[in-house]
Design a protein that fits this description.
InterPro entries: ABM_dom, Dimeric_a/b-barrel. The protein is built from three helices and four strands; from the N terminus they run E-H-E-E-H-H-E. By secondary structure, the protein is α+β, with helices and mostly antiparallel strands.
């Protein structure tokens, strides 16, 4: 199992629009093989910094989603709401 950490710095006052898009993203991801769930967190020191922690069964299934047309479209919808590009960190649970 892997965890995918996605960090996004939103523009001020853009969370409501962001939330609409991210709900669509979670629904799309849930249809993909290997998606095990995801949670959204706010940085305690910066409410415009969003951290998503998603669980995937394998790196390969995450990569299929990451490269999918659905995610590309959703990422393009999110881009105007963010101050910079998202950062992604992939963690595995054991060696």
């Amino acid at each position: 199992m892997i965890r995918v950490i996605i960090e996004r710095q939103l523009k001020p006052d853009s969370f409501d629009e962001y939330a609409t898009v991210i709900r669509k993203a979670k629904k799309e991801a849930a249809r993909k093989t290997g998606f095990m769930g995801g949670e959204l967190y706010f940085d305690l020191n910066d409410n415009d910094k969003i951290v998503i922690i998603a669980a995937w069964d394998t790196l390969e299934n995450w990569e299929l989603w990451d490269k999918s047309e659905e995610r590309k479209v959703l990422t393009e919808e999110l881009a105007p709401l963010m101050l910079n590009d998202e950062t992604i960190t992939i963690l595995k649970s054991s060696r």
